[in-house]
Amino acid sequence: MTPDAPSAVADQPAGAPSAAKPESGLTVLIAFGANLLVAIAKTVASLLTGSASMVAEAAHSWADTGNEIFLFVADRRGARTRDAAHPLGYGKETYVWSMFAAFGLFTAGAVVSIYHGITELGSTKEETDYLVNYVVLAIAFVLEGTSFVQAFRQAHGTASQRRVPTLRHVLQSSNSTLRAVFAEDAAALVGLLIAFLGILLHQLTGSAVFDAIGSIGVGVLLGVVALVLIDRNRRFLIGESPAPELESLVLTRLLARPDIDRVTYLHTEFVGPGRLYLVAAVDMTGDFSEEHVAVALRRVERDLEDHDLVEEAVLTLSTPDEPSLAPSR
Description:
It contains ten helices and three strands; from the N terminus they run αααααααααββαβ. It is mostly helical.
């Protein structure tokens, strides 16, 4: 991997490397502010109108607000540098706290919304003021949309550099904070539309069943999003390899070094957002003594670890009978 590799490698599925951490923090803060204001507005509206859909939306926004705190903690704790007790760094703490946030979305958002919707299915009560609901939903859409635009802008920028669709990048990215905010804000916008439809049908038909169904619909949406986020964090916690294009790029950079003749084994694994644990078997150029080769290997490892993407590199020597690896095209 040559000295100019960081920028090229950092744009891969690792998501947002260390240089992008401040932007992830800004994304979380904007989401927190938007969700807090929306949660308060929806709570007031639900108390004034008794709308089941609005109760579900209030639970959704309070869950999102609490989740942003978890995500902020995830960013801070996961960014700590490695030490003797944690030789691979603290990056995986990001996935632990993001997992808490996903569970919160499921329990405080999905379960509450579905339960409340089911209990309201037989309700015959009238809304006190539909206009209040519509105004609050419109304000919420603007605020949630602002937060989503920030998350989308961050995701789309990196996805464009990778030349992949934005949604694919979000799902693949090792940046769990970005993925959580993006998914929660997207779900919030869809949830607002579901709630609007439920309230509108209630107003047009006079049947509160549609409002209750809207609450259940919001809950199901949150449950699906929460399960996706839980699964993605689980995969990174147990050690997920990067996408094939990133491994191919790492291999290309290794082979581009003048002191490496060939690579016969390569293992990369995410140990945090934008941070890789790299193990490789290489054949060094030249014909040096064992002592000189050992020094050369340590030098290459240090060079690799100087890059933002690599948390730790471990190199060993290839045996003559091992086949060489070639980058995929």
